[in-house]
Amino acid sequence: MRLLSPFLPVAVSLVLLSCSQSDPMEKRIDELIGQMTLGEKIAMIHAQSKFSAPGVPRLGVPELWTDDGPHGVRPETLWDEWSAAGWTNDSCTVYPALTALAATWDRSLSGLYGRSVGEEARYRRKNVLLGPGVNICRTPLCGRNFEYMGEDPFLAGQMAVPYIQGLQSNNVACCVKHYALNNQEFERSGINVNVDDRTLYEIYLPAFKTAVQEGEAWSIMSSYNRYENEYVSHNPRLLKDILKGEWAWDGAVISDWGAVHDTKGAATGGLDLEFGSHTNGVDVGASNAYDSYYMAAAYKKGIEDGTYSEEELNDKVRRVLRLNFRTQMGGNFGSMCSPEHYADARRIASEGIVLLQNKDGLLPLKGEGGKIVVLGENAIRPMAVGGSSSSLKAQKEVSPLEGIRAAFAGWNVVYERAYQGEPTVTGRYNYGLYDLTDPRSDRQLLSDALAAISDADYVIFVGGLNKNKMQDCEGRDRLDYHLPYGQEAVIEALSAARKDLIFINLSGSPVAMPFADKVGAILQGWYLGSEAGNALADVLSGAVNPSGKLPFTFPKELSDGPVKTERQYPGVQDENGRWQVYYDEGIYVGYRWYDSRDVEPQWPFGYGLSYTSFDYGKASASSKKMGKSLSFKIPVTNCGTVAGAEVVQLYVRDMEASVDRPFKELKAFEKVYLEPGQTKTVTLTIDRDALCFFDAAKHEWVAEPGDFQALIGSSSRDIRAVVDFRL
Ligand code: BGC
After folding, report:
1. Residue from 388, 389, 476 whose mutation best tests the ligand 1 pocket (most atoms within 8 A of CB)
2. Which of 57, 133, 183, 534 could pair with 138 in a Cys bridge, judged by C-beta atoms 3.0 to 4.6 Å apart?
3. Which contacts of 419-423 are long-range, i.e. CB under 8 A and separated by 24 or more positions?
4. Which domains occur in the chain, in start order?
């Protein structure tokens, strides 16, 4: 059994290298295809192991190695199985989950993330890292929200591009996932998504389009679900017409693991590379059965007997060869778990933390040498493991308690559990097993916590979800919008004793916070990776001034949101027993919904506080009319005494339209760093596309002449300046 691809034979590397230097890549690819036998072509387009495809040894085309993604490089698995290979040298730097990255609203940090994780992937000899995920957060209950970039297509697309470019600058391909409409885990392996074209084009496709067109992603992952009653991996409309046709994309479509269901669909629907179908692919199928992959023996036979065209096969081979060329040529040697990578992870983590509430300037912590009581299971719980395929083996993971202890070394830091969730990790693929079982009853845990806090200077409760099954984890959605394990009652009891309770919520999805008014400060701490505890402590101590902004709305209650009926979520079974989900809310997803219905959320999209405050001056536009583009300038001043960063957001409002339009839509943003007292003029530029809606009848983007407004502000609900303009 082989576990990892061997070094590329030197001769092969030289052949590839010299070809690229003397000939255009496409010419070399054509030549290779001309030399390949049918069997060799077929072998190239399906897996040979859990995570690799074989290449063409005879012609020196190397194996192609993929790996999860997206928050670090997954440990090695066995050749044919999901189980860990048990290596001792495959632990990694764990980067913050993508929701935390999105919350930085900082494109340069996204580039840093991509470069940094790309160096780790390169070191581990991976050609393709399976990520980033840009599916839209449609419901807070989706089990994989934590792996995605929020509820807004523009934000998700903008934050994905630098990640992709940074990753690919290491000659590691990204595989943007999960294309498309994979917005829930319930029945993910076949549920059919019913969505109108306008909603598809305006909400669910743009981040993918930006990723492939601006980011120039080299591969994309076709999702498990169905669309138009056809599996996405067999779906000519999504894969051929839109992705490869309208978007003129030349990359390779890789199936999600086990997302292919028959040869005809795979051969003719637009898929290029098949993974995970058998050999325990998502727990079904024969072992050692690569020949029984849908794009293996059956496909070969179909070409031989004329059922399928060899031309179509050649297109798949060409796309896979591009992946080979793009990822085997040059690039650095990579590095793993370096001090620089930990510094990158810490910086991204601390800048992604969102300060949601800070009564009476409670944070940052003040004074010296007092008593801090840290409460809550999430203060001690490893979070790199869990969540399923994105689960990682951390070389180091600093827990919140450890981070606080390190940052507040001269203080008396006391820990009490306060509640018990699940003492072990129950999601799949857990590489760092642990047992946090506490023999005390819930009552005892709470009363011990209450006793500990009575004389504390500060009380910090670290709770939330935990990447266990149904708590931010692939494969199953959450069942409840409220915090699990009785945490609400625990927080109520603690806050009755201490109004200055500091609540740190670790989650990758919105959660209910009905207790918000009763506590002093609230931080949204996501899953922050290896440096989680240090990053949180940086913000608690004031070493870092928080500047994260929410990438999705936190409604007060789930019922306030757009997804209300059973057919909208989780879906209903049709007369044939097939699950159908209906996106009846259309384009009204996230803040677009809360704005249009004037529903006050708990915390709005784009919201986040700072230890300083920012004053917005008068905004001006480069013209009163939109030409090719239009720029807006607004001076922003740091009015406080500490340096800080502000995310200036620009939303466009169409004052009159022939169709229903959201009240406003995010179309530009910039993050600006300001010293105390400093003013900088921020420029935000939009083009005509920012004014468009998708006209489904004409199948084109339309910008209707008339009046528009640019709403510039600090969050979607804190608009500081309005500028009128016309098209
Ligand atoms: C997940 C993908 C992942 C793949 C390989 C699938 O179950 O949906 O996101 O990349 O497994 O682990």
Report:
1. 389
2. 183
3. 419/376, 419/377, 419/445, 419/446, 419/463, 419/485, 419/486, 419/487, 419/490, 420/377, 420/445, 420/485, 421/377, 421/381, 421/466, 421/468, 421/471, 421/484, 421/485, 422/466, 422/468, 422/471, 422/485
4. 14-78+90-328 (3.20.20.300), 353-544 (3.40.50.1700), 611-726 (2.60.40.10)
